[in-house]
């Protein structure tokens, strides 16, 4: 099964929070630091209409959550 992809930066508190939520639920994910990956940065900007919004979380079904709160992320995790 394909893993969830979390696009973010090391300094982003929302990225850390999202990773903690995934960890609490034992959900494996791939972390992609957009500051060290130009293609990842371009992808994030593209899917966010020109904005560098992180975390951008891509699910195996192709759905995307951008800067989700804990409740929104946990609701999505419960549905997969």
Describe the fold and architecture.
The structure is a single chain. This protein is α+β, with helices and mostly antiparallel strands and 80 residues long. The protein has one domain (4-79): Glutaredoxin. It is built from 3 helices and 4 strands, in the order βαβαββα. Strands 2-1-3-4 form a 4-stranded mixed beta sheet, with helices on both faces. A hairpin with a 5-residue loop joins strand 3 (56-58) and strand 4 (64-66). Helix 1 runs parallel beside helix 3 (70-79). The chain is globular and about 30 Å long.
CATH level-two architecture:
3-Layer(aba) Sandwich
Main sheet characteristics:
4 strands, mixed
Give the uncertain stretches in residue-range form. Answer: none
CATH class (first level) name: Alpha Beta
| Number of distinct beta strands | 4
Cα-to-Cα separation, first versus last residue: 12 Å
Structural class: alpha+beta
Mean pLDDT: 96
Overall shape: it is globular
Keywords:
80 residues, alpha+beta, Glutaredoxin, four-stranded mixed beta sheet, 4 strands, globular
What would you say about this model in short?
It contains 3 helices and 4 strands; from the N terminus they run E-H-E-H-E-E-H. It has 80 residues and is an alpha+beta fold.
């Amino acid at each position: 099964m394909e893993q969830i992809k979390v696009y973010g930066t090391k300094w982003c508190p929302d990225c850390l929070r999202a990773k903690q939520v995934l960890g609490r639920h034992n959900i494996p994910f791939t972390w992609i630091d957009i500051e060290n990956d130009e293609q990842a940065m371009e992808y994030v900007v593209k899917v966010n209409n020109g904005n560098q919004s992180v975390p951008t979380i891509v699910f195996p079904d192709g759905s995307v959550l951008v800067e989700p709160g804990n409740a929104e992320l946990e609701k999505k995790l419960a549905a997969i």
